[in-house]
Write a sequence for this structure.
């Protein structure tokens, strides 16, 4: 007699991306989970509210997927103060900017994770943040009467993260990390997708359960080089020429109204490659293996 | 070592380095080359017990000859000197001992009372004339650290404005020396503002920017002409001291051996 089998949670990148529908709130981890994000761009998802930062967020904006950002920092990299597509879209009123700060965002995610209507935060008292973001409320705390900011609960529909490895049942083990706000995003989100460099056996996970950084995640996507052109701790470093080429194309679109290079970038790397494997072929083996050097 | 002229950036870094004391914890954000060299100079010269946090990587490298600027903050191979990363949990999970911490902040705009703006410029927040990068963690850091330094890469009347369009880090509010205490903001606030032209401190009674020292070759008139409000200018303003021979040697061979501040 055989026992019923435990369900595996492995999805391919296309099925994972299908979890995200127009208008949802999506949290993007660090490094950006590009394999799934490229599928979002390929599917032409629209009107997303995105919790994220940096150039990964900028690509989603450039591709027209974003209606609202919840970001504390959208720097341009390579000395650029502000990411080009974010800057243009914000200045033209094409996206709504939920103005916040790292501590404030973390407080809202904590509240979301803990089924609280809000959590208080001190950083930001005295600033313009509550004026330009009406969701942030100045409150007097009932214990000591101090002035604080009430940050409403933030609950992403889907969080998408990148990590080193997971077993088939969603027990994730990072090599270094999880980074920055990733655990906060996962705890606050309704469902979380983690894309990984490799699937490992359940035995390997059980050999060192303390190494499990996120347990029992909803979906696992196996995508070696899945964070390219960004880095993956313990695996590869950022592909700087590639990222610079994106910044160059996005800057031309943002500042000179010339979208030709940007459209070509998306056509070549997001639209034409149907799968992550197709994308890696487009990038090329030599380029990929060069990313082990630093 | 003085084979080339001392650059203004080296003067500023030396000034900041001599502000820092051994044992302090120094938080350095992205794209702040002068504070990066300043903390390394201080660490090598007089601060073997300092801890430097470059973005998220906490390190002490007093035993090393040099510390190349970490190119990237989160990968252990590029930041091979890190002893820990502050993203185990979150870097703001414990702020109660931040009175020992020192921080450097930039800004798109700075007002006479040291309030700073990283949000952007323009009356309409939904259509800014210039969209800034965002507040990063500066609202929280400026609230809690023992003291911080405003460090700008340019000194113009567009940067130094009578009133910031938006404030992302609260300095001294409207200039009341009690402004922070009244709002329950525990940190010590901005101590100095350092620019390519000068060092400024704040007057005691109105917390208004006041010229403290001029970098070599700069005049008070030049500073005032590039400031969008009236600075307090004392009768005698000293020159920001040049690095000593020892300091210059440490900068050029260890703290900034790649010469970032000489380009």
């Amino acid at each position: 007699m055989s026992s019923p089998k435990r369900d595996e949670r492995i999805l391919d990148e296309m099925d994972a991306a299908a979890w995200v529908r127009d208008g949802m709130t999506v949290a993007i981890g660090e490094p950006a989970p590009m394999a799934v994000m490229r599928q979002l761009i390929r599917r032409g998802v629209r009107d997303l509210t995105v919790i994220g930062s940096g150039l990964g967020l900028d690509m989603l904006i450039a591709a027209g997927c974003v209606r609202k950002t919840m970001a504390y920092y959208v720097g341009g990299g390579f000395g650029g103060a502000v990411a080009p597509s974010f800057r243009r879209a914000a200045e033209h009123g094409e996206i709504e900017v939920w103005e916040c700060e790292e501590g404030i965002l973390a407080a809202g995610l904590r509240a979301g994770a803990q089924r609280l209507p809000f959590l208080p935060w001190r950083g930001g008292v005295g600033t313009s943040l509550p004026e330009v973001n009406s969701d942030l409320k100045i409150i007097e705390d009932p214990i000591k009467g101090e002035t604080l900011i009430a940050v409403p609960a933030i609950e992403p529909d889907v969080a998408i993260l990148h990590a080193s490895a997971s077993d088939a049942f969603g027990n994730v083990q990072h090599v270094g990390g999880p980074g920055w706000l990733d655990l906060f995003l996962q705890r606050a989100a309704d469902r979380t997708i983690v894309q990984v460099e490799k699937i490992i056996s359940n035995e390997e996970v059980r050999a060192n359960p303390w190494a499990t950084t996120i347990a029992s995640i909803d979906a696992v996507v196996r995508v070696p080089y899945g964070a390219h052109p960004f880095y993956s701790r313990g695996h590869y470093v950022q592909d700087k020429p590639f990222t610079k080429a994106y910044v160059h194309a996005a800057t031309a679109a943002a500042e000179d109204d010339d979208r030709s290079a940007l459209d070509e970038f998306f056509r070549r790397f997001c639209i034409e490659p149907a799968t992550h494997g197709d994308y890696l072929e487009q990038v090329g083996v030599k380029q990929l293996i060069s990313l082990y050097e630093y | 070592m003085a084979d080339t002229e001392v650059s203004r950036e080296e003067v500023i870094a030396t000034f900041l380095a001599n502000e820092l004391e051994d044992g302090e914890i120094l938080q350095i954000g992205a794209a702040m080359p002068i504070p990066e060299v300043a903390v390394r100079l201080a660490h090598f010269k007089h601060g073997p017990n300092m801890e430097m946090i470059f973005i998220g990587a906490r390190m002490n490298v007093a035993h090393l000859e040099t510390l190349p600027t970490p190119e990237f903050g989160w990968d252990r191979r590029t930041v091979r000197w890190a002893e820990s990363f502050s993203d185990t949990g979150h870097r703001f999970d414990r702020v109660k001992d931040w009175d020992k911490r020192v921080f450097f902040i930039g800004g798109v705009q700075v007002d006479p009372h040291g309030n700073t703006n990283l949000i952007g410029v323009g009356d309409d927040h939904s259509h800014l004339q210039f969209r800034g990068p965002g507040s990063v963690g500066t609202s929280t850091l400026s609230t809690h650290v023992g003291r911080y330094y405003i460090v700008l890469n340019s000194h113009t009347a567009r940067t130094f404005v009578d009133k910031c369009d938006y404030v992302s880090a609260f300095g001294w509010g409207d200039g009341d020396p009690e402004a922070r205490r009244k709002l329950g903001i525990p940190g010590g606030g901005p101590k100095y503002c350092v620019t390519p032209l000068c060092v400024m401190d704040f007057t005691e009674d109105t917390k208004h920017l006041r010229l403290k020292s001029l970098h070599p070759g700069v005049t008070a008139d030049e500073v005032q002409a590039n400031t969008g409000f009236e600075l307090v200018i004392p009768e005698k303003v000293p020159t920001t001291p040049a690095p000593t021979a020892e300091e210059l040697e440490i900068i050029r061979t260890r703290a900034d051996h790649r010469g970032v501040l000489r380009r």
Q: What stands out?
A: Chain A touches chain B through 55 residues (CB under 8 Å). The first strand of chain A starts at residue 10 and ends at 11. The CA atoms of residues 99 and 128 of chain A lie 9 Å apart. Residues 117-152 of chain A form one domain.
